[in-house]
Amino acid sequence: MRSLVVKSCCLFFLILFVSQHYSVSATKKLLDPKKPCKRFVLYYHDILFGGDDVANATSATTANATGLGNTNFGMLVVFDDPMTKDQHLLSPPVARAQGFYFYDMKTTYNAWFAYTLIFNSSDHKGTLNIMGADMMMEKTRDLSVVGGTGDFFMARGIATFQTMNQEGTKYFRLKMDIKLYECY
Ligand SMILES: *[C@@H]1O[C@H](CO)[C@@H](O)[C@H](O)[C@H]1NC(C)=O
Ligand SMILES: *[C@@H]1O[C@H](CO)[C@@H](O)[C@H](O)[C@H]1NC(C)=O
Ligand SMILES: *[C@@H]1O[C@H](CO)[C@@H](O)[C@H](O)[C@H]1NC(C)=O
Question: May I ask which residue range the UniProt record assigns to the signal sequence (predicted)?
Fold first, then answer.
């Protein structure tokens, strides 16, 4: 009789433990930042329109800086920029980055990006939508990949920016290390 009580008691705790374990793992997704399901590096090239370089420019200021501070606060730039696999501006683009950024900090250069990477090649067809703060003074910055279409259907992840080159306000190049944690 006593051993039956002990056994049923053990069984009760075993069931409790197993059910708790399963209910936790069913609601919590375990994502390891070091293990994206897809990862690739692309380089972004932005050439700001200067008034007489229509053929070469890839972006243009559509609202000027406001004069609040001296870090371009309020300046809005719309871009249609080439994305290349290596750092060369003239390498064949594998995607386009279309969207905008604006400067949003009074005391230092800081921008906010929202854009779509558009892939239209034999390798990839589809889009990735990316947005977030570009704190230019940091060596690397993480922006959110908030969604995707086509080959990137329902994707989510992180795009890590790193400034590779900067020629005043005329040209800059960013490394974008794109890591997806949801792939379908
Ligand atoms: C286009 O702009 C880039 C960046 O400023 C510059 O390096 C390049 O020489 C320009 N190309 C032409 C054809 O003007
Ligand atoms: C922005 O300001 C500069 C310098 O004051 C001027 O040359 C340019 O035309 C302005 N651009 C716009 C879009 O207002
Ligand atoms: C994608 O590429 C094809 C073939 O070059 C072209 O016909 C089509 O218009 C392109 N689509 C977009 C959205 O750029």
Answer: 1-26
Cα–Cα distance between 105 and 171 in angstroms, integer? 20
The residue whose C-alpha atom lies closest to atom 10 belonging to ligand 1 is 56
In the three-class reduction of DSSP (H, G, I as helix; E, B as strand; rest coil), residue 176 is classed as strand
- Ligand 1 atom showing the smallest separation from residue 53 Cα: 14
Write b or e for each residue in 104-122: b if 16 or more Cβ atoms lie within 10 A of its Cβ, otherwise e: bbeeeebbbbebbbbbeee
First CA to last CA distance, the chain:
54
pLDDT digits (tens, 9 = 90+) for 136-158: 999 999 999 999 999 999 999 99
Return phi, psi of residue 79, to 5°. -130, 155
Q: Nearest 5°: phi and psi at 109?
A: -75, 120
Mutate to test the pocket of ligand 1, among 47, 79, 165, 167 (most ligand atoms within 8 A of CB): 47
80 bridge partner residues:
98
